[in-house]
Amino acid sequence: MQKQYRILVIGFLLVVLIAGLPSQVSADSDDDERISIIVENANYQDCDNDNHDDDVLTVFRVIPPDDDWDEGILCITCTIEKPSGSSIETNFEVFTEDSVVITIVWFNWADESGDYILRIRVEANSYDDDDDEISPAYIEHVFDPPGGSDPGPPVIAIMSIDEMR
Q1: What does the H/E/C string look like for 64-108?
Q2: Cα 146 to Cα 160: distance, rounded to the nearest angstrom
Q3: Which residues contact 46 (CB under 8 A, 6 or more apart)?
C-alpha cells in the first residue's frame, strides 16, 4: 500500500511540475512576427595591425520576421560597455529583403580586463502592405577580452553588411 501511495505522490508531483512549466509551443505564437538577433562572434584581436590585441570584432545576424517581411529598413543600435562602465555606440540603418550578417570592428576599445557587454537593439520598418507592427528586438552579450593597451582613440568601423538569401 505504501508503495502505491509513493507512486501516486510522485506521479502527482510530476504532473504539477510539467503543468507549471512555460509552454514551448503555442498556436498563438508571435515568433514569426519578431526580429531575431544572433551574436556569432564577439572577441578581441589586432585588427589594425598595431601589435596590440585591443580591437573588438563583433559579428551578428539580424533575422526579420518570416510572416511580415518582404523588404524594409532595419534600424540598428550597437553599444559596447567596458567593465568600468565607459561605452561607445553606433547607429545605422540597413535596407534589406532578408536577414543580414553585420561585422563591426571597434578599434582600440579592449583596453580593460573584465566583462564587456555588447548591446544590440533593432527596430524594423517593413514596406509590406500589412499594418502588422513588428516588435523591436534587444539582446545583451557578455564577453571577456583579456585587456591590453590603448595606443589610439576608439574608432568604430562597419566592415561589412552581407544580405543572406
Answers
A1: CCCCCCCCEEEEEEEEEECCCCCEEEEEEEEEECCCEEEEEEEEC
A2: 25
A3: 52, 53, 54, 55
**Residue 97 corresponds to which cell in the numbers above?**
529583403
CA distance 95 to 163: 10
Give the Cα separation of 111 and 124 in Å (integer): 33
Q: What pLDDT, in 10s, does the model give residues 78-131?
A: 999 999 999 999 999 999 988 999 999 999 898 888 899 999 999 988 776 565
Query: Strand pairing partners for 151?
Result: none
Q: Which three cell numbers stand for residue 136?
A: 523591436
Residues in the chain: 165
Output b/e per residue, 106-142; b: 16+ Cβ within 10 A. bbbbbbbeeebbbebbbbbebeeeeeeebeebeeebe
Task: Let me know: does 81 contact 127? Beta carbons within 8 Å.
Answer: no
What residues contact residue 22 under an 8 Å CB cut-off, 6+ apart?
A: none
* DSSP SS3 for 13: helix
